[in-house]
Write a structure and sequence with these properties.
The complex is a heterodimer.
Chain A (H helix, E strand, L loop, with lengths): L4 E3 L2 E4 L5 E6 L6 E8 L5 E7 L2 E4 L8 E4 L6 E5 L8 E8 L10 E2 L3 E5 L1
Parallel strand pairs in A: 2-11
Antiparallel strand pairs in A: 1-3, 3-8, 4-5, 4-9, 5-6, 7-8, 9-10, 9-11
Chain B lengths: L8 E5 L4 E6 L7 E8 L6 E6 L4 E2 L4 E4 L5 E6 L8 E9 L11 E6 L1
Parallel strand pairs in B: 1-9
Antiparallel strand pairs in B: 2-7, 3-4, 3-8, 5-6, 6-7, 8-9
Classes of the chains: A mainly beta, B mainly beta.
Chain lengths: ~120, ~110
Amino acid sequence: EAGVTQFPSHSVIEKGQTVTLRCDPISGHDNLYWYRRVMGKEIKFLLHFVKESKQDESGMPNNRFLAERTGGTYSTLKVQPAELEDSGVYFCASRQSGRGTYNEQFFGPGTRLTVL
Amino acid sequence: DAKTTQPTSMDCAEGRAANLPCNHSTISGNEYVYWYRQIHSQGPQYIIHGLKNNETNEMASLIITEDRKSSTLILPHATLRDTAVYYCIVRVRNDYKLSFGAGTTVTVRA
């Protein structure tokens, strides 16, 4: 079974440009999470989707960040316009609803974003 | 705000058990103790979790003190591939978002 995949693995853009990160969750996982680690900081929660609905977006830093999950499958995280402080690694995780070990979050490898 | 306290780093000899401590003195009754790890250049990986009983799976064992204010993750036979940052996380029941702290950098040496 394929794990969580993220694209691209690395993105280098200039300040002011737009970047879109994509996450493909594990098939059948209703829950999708975005996290990020900016330079020198800890991994922080950004938001949580249940299917196509935003369940919790309390961690989104500002309105330059827009997350979508059309059709409840893959998700995109757009940063527009990107700022220097947005540089870091963006992780996506998915989780199957319910209880048990296999209902925990499975993380993708992350997208490393560098804003110059 | 960090709810857990972990040592910054520790070394472990290959083949020996690695015991990773975590303090969570303010944990409440509806909060679980979770452990994740992050191997270099990969995403975090779930290891184990518990509420109040000790737990064991194919990766590790989790020992939680009776007062639930601290716990220990045990890797029974550490290998070089266990070198990673290990995160102890307290999570509220029914709220699956994770709050990562700085973790413990574990280096397994041959």
